[in-house]
Amino acid sequence: MKNQIRKMLSLSLAAVMALSLTACGVGGTAEAPAASEAAVEETVETAAVEAAEEVADAHYTVGICQLVQHVALDAATQGFKDAIVEKLGEDAVTFDEQNAAGDSAQCTTICTGLVSDGVDLILANATPALQAAASSTTEIPVLGTSITEYGVALSIDGFNGTVGGNISGTSDLAPLDQQAKMIEELFPEAKNVGILYCSAEANSVYQADTVKAALEADGLKVTVYTFADSNDVASVTQSACDENDVLYIPTDNTAASCTEAINNVALPAGVPIVAGEEGIVKGCGVAALSIDYYELGRTTGEMAVKILTGETDIATMPIEYYNNPVKVYNPEICDKLGIKIPEGYTAIEE
User: Fold this and answer.
1) Which of 5, 79, 135, 291 has CB atoms 3.0–4.6 Å from 298's, for a disulfide?
2) Cα(344)–Cα(308) distance, rounded to whole angstroms?
3) How confident is the model at residue 14 (pLDDT cuts 50, 70, 90)?
4) Buried-exposed string 28-60: b where 16+ CB fall within 10 A, e elsewhere
């Protein structure tokens, strides 16, 4: 689609240049330049109309690589699709949506396939998906979503908020210092805090390190517990529960897909969990400073429309953030643990 538009504009430009040269030719009459200028103007107007019609009739194929199926990522993907359909129309876009089932290697396979198919844009939902897409193409626009920190995910030193090249997107980072304060607000008597996450997720490492430093600065003892994948999540959770008063889980995709296994250990042990996002809290936590992943996806979709229609160059688009995180809590788990939530928290609906 885009190649056709470029060709049309190139041909129009060539015509404009030829007419301009004619207007400036030696030996022309006094009226020739005026006539040529009129022809140039008409050519430009015609090209603009034809290009606009071409865009109006455009059909785009958008590839989606989602790391794993869970509430937060599903909501982001849905918001992304809804925003594009609302802006461009249902008939203007085809989504090639694929899920890697938690397998980073499968993300690479999916992204390589999308590039081979020549999609117009790729949505990379979660860090491993973004890393795979970035490795697969430097030409096709790639938008990330549910990415905590792009500098960490893409190994960019001195990241300034704009990736450049063919990559941009949205971040799901809620203020980490406020998350640390939430743990202290809810559990002022806690002395030992365990941080639990998947060691394969670079953004989880970043969040854990930041929250750990904030808690330790306030005098708490913090121990980090990592699991390699879903196979050892239960045993690692048990160790963390045995040694701590409260646990913190960042926005970790593997943990989010294993909330039942985590809850089966933490709830009987009577150890509360504060998490980095609402989806984990729904499954195994008591509270989170959370963002709206559906709205985050919509923001990403609006960015995609601007890229597809040529309104904006992705290379200049800064990463966008969700600016209104809210304190949420899980009434059911709080009741079972006998935890009274202070004012200012919103109950998560079933």
Assistant:
1) 79
2) 41
3) very low
4) eeeeeeeebeebbeebeeebeeebeeebeebeb
Helix (H, G, I), strand (E, B) or coil at 143: strand
What's the length of the chain? 350
DSSP 41-81: HHHHHHHHHHHHHHHHT--EEEEEEES---HHHHHHHHHHH
Sequence-separated (6 or more) residues with CB below 8 Å from residue 159: 149, 150, 151
CA-derived radius of gyration, the chain: 26
Q: pTM of the entire structure?
A: 0.75
Residue 214 to residue 89: CA distance in whole angstroms: 46
CA-based end-to-end distance of the chain:
44
Q: From CA 333, how far away is CA 284, in angstroms rounded?
A: 8
User: What does the pLDDT look like over 234-272, one tens digit per residue?
Assistant: 999 999 999 999 999 999 999 999 999 999 999 999 999
Cα(309)–Cα(300) distance, integer angstroms: 15
Neighbours of 209 (CB within 10 A): 15
Give how far Cα 258 sits from Cα of 78, 128, 183, 195, 255, Å. 21, 17, 22, 15, 5
Query: Please, what is the angle between helix 127-136 and helix 104-116, to 10°?
Result: 40
Measured distance CA(60)–CA(1) in Å, rounded:
7
Domain spanning 176-290+326-347: CATH superfamily: Response regulator (3.40.50.2300)
**260 CB neighbour count, 10 Å cutoff:** 9
One-letter amino acid for residue 315 of the chain: A
Nearest partner of 173 among 147, 155, 199, judged by Cα: 147
pLDDT for residue 25 is more than 60: no
